[in-house]
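In this supplementary section we document a worked example of the pipeline. Step one takes a protein sequence of length 142 as its only input; no multiple sequence alignment statistics are reported here. Step two produces a three-dimensional model, which step three serialises into structure tokens for compact storage. The input and output of this example are shown verbatim.
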Amino acid sequence: MGDRLILAEDVQKVIHHAETTGKKLVDPATGRSLAYYRPKAVTYWVEYSRNGEGYQVHTAYSHRMVMKSSGSTREWVKSGSVSTWHCSQCQAPLEVQTVRLQYMQSIFPINLPACSQCGFILIDEELATGKVAEAEQALEDK
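The serialised model returned by step three reads:
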């Protein structure tokens, strides 16, 4: 986490937010949870599992893109592909759909796993630390 400039308190805030609001994803096969929290300009994601009285953090990552799920999720274009992650609140598997990400004044349509019922959008670790980070840097360099 340190190499990604993510503080332990950021991780704790994500887990606390997920556990108190129920806004998280669950992988039924592994029992792991994945949640995000955006206190200001950075979105922090944490994949974790319960470990006795506490939690074991499996990974943590961040990005600065804003996930846009405004409007009706019925308008999203679905690919028919289903994710292993399930929305904890809706008890539904995520489906790959065309959603929108925004950074600075640019909006990008992109196919990502999202909950068709509540609009929870998943930006996985590979995307966040790869293409999203590259896009953020390119926009900042303009």
